[in-house]
Every structure is written in C-alpha cells, then in structure tokens.
Amino acid sequence: MRRSLVVGNWKMNGTQASAIKLASDILAGLNGADAEIAVCVPYVYLSDVGQLVKGTQLALGAQNVGDQESGAYTGEISATMLKDFDCKFAIVGHSERRAYYGDSNAMVAARFAQALAQGIKPILCVGETLQQREQDQTFQVIDEELDAVFDLAGVDAFSDAVIAYEPVWAIGTGMTASDQQAQEVHQYIRGRFADKNAALAENLQILYGGSVKPGNAKALFAMPDIDGGLIGGASLDADSFLQIYRAA
Ligand code: PGA
Fold first, then answer.
1. What digits encode the pLDDT tens for the residues 105-132?
2. Residue range 155-186, pLDDT digits in tens
3. CA distance 123 to 15
4. Which residue's CA is the nearest one to ligand 1's atom 3?
5. Which residues have CB under 6 Å of ligand 1?
6. Is residue 213 packed enough to be buried (19+ CB in 10 Å), middle (13-18) or exposed (0-12)?
7. Model-wide pTM > 0.85
8. CATH of 5-247, one of 3.40.630.30, 3.20.20.450, 3.20.20.70, 3.10.129.10
9. Pick from 162, 145, 166, 143: nearest CA to 203
10. Spatial distance between the Cα atoms of 82 and 65, rounded to a whole number of angstroms
C-alpha cells in the first residue's frame, strides 16, 4: 500500500521570520496522521526550518539541487550541502526551472542523480504546457522527461524517488486539471514503470501538482493513481496546507 505524501513548495516567497512562523504553524497543526508531509523551503531557510522540524513528522526538502558533485558552479547548491541540513527531498525539474532557467531534460536527470547519490529523494516534476496538451503531445512530453532520467539513472532508481505530475497550465493559474484528466496521466506514468518493474510501479508515489486547494484536494487524492500533492500557493498558508494534508 502506498503512503500518501503532501509536499509544500514555498518557491521564492517569504522572509526568515515568515518561514519560521509558517513552519511552526504547520507543526502546531499536525495530528500524527499517517500520510507523509514535507516542506521544500528556500535554500537560505533550510537551517532555520530544519532546526524546527528535526525529530518531527514534518520532513525538510529543497526546491532544486546542483547537477554536479562540487566545483566551480557559481550559484549552485550541491546534494552534499543539502545532506548537511538533513534534507529528505529535493524537487528537480520543476516547470518554472525548465521554463525560466533553461533546465533541460538532461540537466534535470543529472540533478536527479546527484540527489539520489546523497540519499536525498528527488521529486521529479513532469508535465505538459497548454499548447502541448492541445496538440495531443501530453504523453510524448512526459515520455521524454522520464526517458532522460531512465537513460542516466535507470528505472530502479525510482524506488527512492517521487514523481510529481504538474500540468504547466495548472500551476499558479487556478486552473486545476480535472480529477479524470489528472488520473489519466498518473495512470499512464505508472504504466510506464509497470512495463519495466511491476513492484516498483506499485509502490511509486505519484503526486499531482497545479492549483491544489483545500476545496479540490479530496477529490483529486481519491483517484486511484494520485498519491498526494505538490502544493505551491496554498502551502504558504498553514491552515490551507494542513487542510490539504488532511485530505490525503
Ligand atoms: P500551485 O503550484 O499549487 O501554486 O499551482 C504548484 C507547484 O508549482 O508545485
């Protein structure tokens, strides 16, 4: 049986004070439910939030990770560095990274491999733009995004990884994929794994992301292949985030 997982992606929001307050408020509202919960915070607040969540149910994650082990890569943060802060997760290949900072499929695969090498679970984001969906390219785009990681790290690497299906057109737009639309793609993704390793496919956590809110979370999470969510905007409010968590 797969455990549900709800992950907050704070993106480039907040201050040191607000990060500490948000993490504290989330912790205060946790009720020991069985689902997993994590927050992916800005790098510079990993230390503050890490100290708060140490030994609690709330896991720590980063929003990205360097594609190289170490060296002259100005501005990058390595998986080894994240390990120092006890990061359990690192998002890789978020569509904002792909669209605004040029993260290619190959680079995302390298980031994925770096995280794994340090025992950090990569959360690999995949998903199509509106134009790609309208041109019936959704599955092709997802294949390309997955194949780049299969080629570099192999399928079995996903036994320590998470996938987030995030249709780009649904991120931060208030336009959520319908439960059926999301389920269709989740099922497709799980099928790609089932062809290669049935046991792994059965255990793989596949999250949905894109305008998940307290009002739509329950229906999305009830779909058979949706194992939780990657939450952006609604994770910046402790109450909303906790309501979504309880829906899982
Ligand atoms: P959103 O973001 O919930 O604000 O749509 C999701 C994400 O980008 O992970």
1. 999 999 999 999 999 999 999 999 999 9
2. 999 999 999 999 999 988 888 889 999 999 99
3. 24
4. 232
5. 9, 166, 171-172, 209-212, 230-234
6. middle
7. yes
8. 3.20.20.70
9. 162
10. 8
